[in-house]
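Good morning N.,

You mentioned wanting to compare the apo and holo forms, so I went ahead and generated the holo version with adenosine-5'-triphosphate. This is what I fed in:
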Amino acid sequence: MASVLQFDDVSVVRGGNRILDSVDWTADSAERWVVLGPNGAGKTTLLQVASAMIHPSLGMATVLDETLGDVDVFDLRTRIGFASTALARRLPANETVLNVVLTASYSVTGRWNEEYDAVDTRRARRVLAEWKLDHLQERRFGQLSDGEQKRVQIARAVMTDPELMLLDEPAASLDLGAREELLQLLSGYAAAKNAPGIVMVTHHVEEIPPGFEHALLLREGRIMAAGPIAEVLTAENLGETFGLPLELEHHDGRYTARSLVK
Ligand SMILES: Nc1ncnc2c1ncn2[C@@H]1O[C@H](COP(=O)(O)OP(=O)(O)OP(=O)(O)O)[C@@H](O)[C@H]1O
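and this is what came out, ligand included:
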């Protein structure tokens, strides 16, 4: 098992505050992590370091065996799949779904010829089918529903066959049906034997896909708990992380939480 992420005492300082504070964390290629924490806890900042978009202010971050600061981040980023709402906003609304997914491979290969075209198009169609988007491939990205757009973002990230997949709130703003469909797809993707290391940020335990077996709880930039989900995701830990007493239930790989405040 190779490590995909290693954070040694990583802090990110902005405006004089440590928005990520002394984080020690290792994630391996066979692990699927969920990162939970309240608004402003530092989850997106953690993913920004993991995706080589920013460097730690203090400490050392190693991503796919490359130490940030000693590596060409443009090369490194091509090995990382990243899906987030911020990234989706940069996708052209008038582009077809097929092209949105297909163009992901150009940023990796950086070239274009007939041979790549055929190989890439076949792969893009296969990825679209896997993410239940094949019937939408000629539709404009901007005309899709939120749920469909989320799946397209992830399909685009999958297209490059990344060694590390980072998902920032993939189920946010989805309706119940779209959320459940996405979680099922994510669960299947995570279970595939060639799946990369995966880190998914969410606010809600209900959005943890079955099969994600590691959890990291973050509050005010600090890790509250990290490790196997059965040990980390307890009512007590979650309550401390979100700052209120909680009841946590777990059935068939799914979690639900509710406040105990009357
Ligand atoms: N460039 C910056 N300068 C100052 N403060 C920042 C900067 N970027 C982020 N922050 C602050 O750092 C904290 C952590 O932000 P971050 O976006 O990582 O949190 P988050 O856990 O992803 O939050 P949310 O769940 O609301 O998306 C927040 O309080 C945010 O306001």
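Confidence is low (pLDDT under 50) at residues 108-112.

Happy to go through it together on a call whenever suits you.

Best,
F.
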